[in-house]
Amino acid sequence: MNTLKIGVVGLTVGNEHIKSYMNASYDIEIFICDIDKDRLNTIGTQHQIPVENRFCDFDEMLSSVKLDAVSICVPNFLHKPFTIKALEAGAHVLCEKPMSVNATDALLMKEAADRTGKKLMINYNQRFTKNCRIAQKLISEGALGDIYFVRTVWHRRRGVPWWYPLSEADKTCGGGPLIDLGCHVLDRALWMCGFPQPKWILANTFCAVVGDEAKQRGIDNFSVEDMGVAMLAMENGMMLELEASWASNRESELVKTRIYGTKGGLVIASDFASDNRSINSLFIEKNGTLEDVPFSDFEDEDTGDIRISFIESILNDTQPVCTAEQGLTVARIIDKIYLSAKQKTPVEY
Ligand SMILES: NC(=O)c1ccc[n+]([C@@H]2O[C@H](COP(=O)([O-])OP(=O)(O)OC[C@H]3O[C@@H](n4cnc5c(N)ncnc54)[C@H](O)[C@@H]3O)[C@@H](O)[C@H]2O)c1
Fold first, then answer.
1. Atom number of ligand 1 nearest to Cα 12
2. pLDDT value for 19
3. Within 10 A of 267 (CB to CB), how many other CB atoms are there?
4. Contacts of 145 (CB under 8 A, 6+ apart)
5. Of 211, 215, 222, 221, which Cα lies nearest the Cα of 176?
6. Contact of 132 with 309, CB cutoff 8 Å
7. Taking CB atoms and a 6 Å cutoff, what residues make up the pocket around ligand 1?
């Protein structure tokens, strides 16, 4: 295989993509793009990326180099146009989460990937954490039996991303914490449970805590929720509860997914959140005895880097782990959640 030419556009979270590509044990040449020239050159210098591989304009990067792949790490509203341009220029795409600001755009992105025959992977990197992988494996092996209830949450005490253009965040981001944080914990829960088909969705959103602070910051029209809650009824009878907040009156951050099955249950909590004292564990009953099995008892040899997985899907011509189809499902659910909250009624998926 010749050198893989990979472009990264958007160099805040995009810097994490660059680091993965630089650490990969494959022959990769990196090209970078950001409209912020200072950031472009700071990151370029930090990684010793040649000046001729740096671009302020995405179209110019695509027309100057025949890229094999692109990481799209720009704000949400640019995911659709940048992904479609990159696919049409003949590159495979790893697009940051959420797939886009709504399901209409996400569908156009998936159609572009189908049309061009290029891979489109969505960066749902939480699936690549050790605990998510162990949980998914246990469930797929039947350790929990039939899954009937899931609660998946991401709450922050105070964690509004004030650097986003929040007065028009419904357009630029697609919403508030439900799409920003909720998409991650929804995706990982659906993935662990084999992506069951949704049937009904009942939801509500609130802007209950941050309104005054938004005004103090000069945002008169804080257009999105600071918390959202949804209950999903699946075709197979399973119920899934999703909660996401940027600001809620609780002790500290919580990122947790709990799953109940007929034979066992489990809980996973993300390390980076401070309120995760419960151990990642499997709960089962063996010969009439209740047992807690910590996840540290299970082996996991995966490297856990989503960007390496993306590269390997290109090199081996295999389906990416986080598919465009799954990204579209998450986008459709989130659209319906906002619709249910707006209409104050349950909506059909
Ligand atoms: N997977 C994760 O856990 C994770 C974490 C953080 C952010 N994200 C996602 O990554 C994306 C970016 O988030 P962020 O926090 O890095 O945002 P950010 O606003 O901090 O950074 C976006 C970057 O894109 C650049 N940019 C904007 N418009 C551009 C254009 N037209 N051409 C080239 N560059 C442009 C900006 O200058 C900036 O450097 C979002 O979709 C977000 O949801 C994912």
1. 16
2. 98
3. 21
4. 261, 262, 263, 264
5. 222
6. no
7. 9-13, 33-36, 39, 58, 73-76, 78, 96-97, 123, 125
Q: Whose CA is nearest to atom 25 of ligand 1?
A: 10
**Among 68, 50, 53, CA closest to 4:** 68
Q: Are residues 105 and 93 in the same domain?
A: yes
Q: From atom 40 of ligand 1, which residue's Cα is the shortest distance away?
A: 75
The pLDDT of residue 221: 84
Ligand 1: distance of its center to the CA of 11 in Å? 7
Q: Which atom of ligand 1 is nearest to the CA of 36?
A: 37
Domain coverage including residue 316: 4-123+305-320
Q: Quote the pLDDT of residue 277.
A: 53
Q: Return averaged pLDDT per consecutive 10 residues of the chain, 349 residues in all.
A: 93 98 97 98 98 98 98 98 98 98 98 98 95 95 98 96 88 96 98 98 96 91 94 98 97 92 94 62 94 89 87 97 98 98 97
Asked if the structure places residue 340 within a domain, the reply is no
Quote the CA–CA distance of 203 and 348 in Å, as a whole number.
12
* Shortest-distance Cα residue to atom 43 of ligand 1: 97
How close is the Cα of 185 to the center of ligand 1, in Å? 19
* Closest approach atom of ligand 1 to CA 10: 24
Same domain for 92 and 186, yes or no, is: no
In a domain, 346, yes or no: no
Alpha carbon 337 to its chain centroid, in Å, reads 17
Q: Residue 266 belongs to what H/E stretch?
A: strand 264-269
